[in-house]
Amino acid sequence: MTGAQLLIHQVRYEQKSFWRNPVAAVFIVAFPLMFLFIFASLSGRVDAYGGISEAQYVVPQMLAYGLMNACFTNPAINLTYRRETGLLKRLRLTPLPRWAALGGIVGNALLTAILIGGVILIIGFAAYGIHWYGHVLALLVAVAVGVLAFTALGAAVSTFIPNEDAAPPVVNFAYIGLLFLSGNFIPISPGSTLARIGDVFPVRHLDTAIITTFLPGGPHGVAQGFAWSDVGVLAIWGAVGVAIAVRRWRWEPRRSG
């Protein structure tokens, strides 16, 4: 098999494994949809973004939330489980190249994020009548950089988790706190203290990069929907995630060391 065929095969395996775990699938896929229905149904305007409707704000935020769920939460928990149960160690002994094994995880995260994002956008346009300004390229760039950055960060975080039982609480404690701090569920004014704290972390930058593509010009001015500074920060966080993951990566369970 060629390298591309190996990668496709591994992505298909990861997808089958994901959908055969209904608990994980519900958590990763259903939660963004549930929050979408709850928050997008609220009436009112978001002054922090030029008085746009609540739905116009919430749909991009849930798109970012779904992406992070698929690319950060799932890989961080899954990689910890595979390492501590010896699955990664056994995988290392197979003929499958390591790059294909890790590429399958990234590909699975990308496909899942695209699926979640597609469903959220369809609901947003059909049920809530949100406006679209044609910033397709800007949205694709934000999503692509976000997928790579948060998948790398998920792999990096997994190297700090001591065992598979600790993975869900550790990941969700940090992740959900950052969602609220970054204004993912409740709008936060860009110049507020909470916003400045949130700007330290990648969650708010992905939120801003995506919501800018749903604004006529966005808070950064008329730039065809691009929030380049936020995309740049995401890329830096992704590079940091890769460096940490490479530095600390282990194929063997921690308890065996």
Runs with pLDDT <50, length 5+? 218-222
* C-alpha-based Rg, rounded: 18 Å
Strand order of the largest sheet: 1-2
Separation, N- and C-terminal Cα atoms: 35 Å
Please characterize this protein's 3D structure.
- It contains 10 helices and 2 strands; from the N terminus they run ααββαααααααα.
- The chain is mainly α and 257 residues long.
- The protein has one domain.
- Mean pLDDT is 85; it is low at 218-222.
Q: Nutshell version of this structure?
A:
With 257 residues, the protein is mainly α.
Please write out the topology.
Layout: H1 3-19, H2 22-40, E1 45-46, E2 52-53, H3 54-84, H4 87-92, H5 98-128, H6 136-158, H7 167-181, H8 193-198, H9 202-212, H10 228-248
Antiparallel strand pairs: 1-2
Keywords:
single chain, 257 residues, mainly alpha, two-stranded antiparallel ribbon
